[in-house]
Amino acid sequence: MKYKVGDKLKNHTYTREIMSVNNGYYHTLDDAHGVAHFTDEQLKMHGFTLHHDRPDLKVDDKILVRDYANNNYPWVRRHFAGWDGDKVKTFSDGKTLFTTNASYRTWNHYKLPESED
Hints:
The chain is mainly beta. Helices cover 5% and strands 44% of the residues. The strands form two sheets. It has a five-stranded antiparallel sheet with strand order 4-3-2-1-5.
């Protein structure tokens, strides 16, 4: 199975949330149509893809990143460069668009500096 409970899937019209996974079916929910059951093939046929609620970031915005969710790994200060699938992309070594030589790095986890713990 491709998706997990809690994932949000979106097509050109609707957003559905995976509520449970059982016997090869995703049990999904949306506000307009309620509960529906889909297989991977049916979701693909209806154009559903994984949806990420992403902040509205511009190139060079300040961002905190790290590769592991574990709190033993510190957040690193970087400048936003874009998205690479579901990963955030930053300029290497804390550089900005102005100072980089087109060198990037992708990260698994990010947060905005205003939300530091």
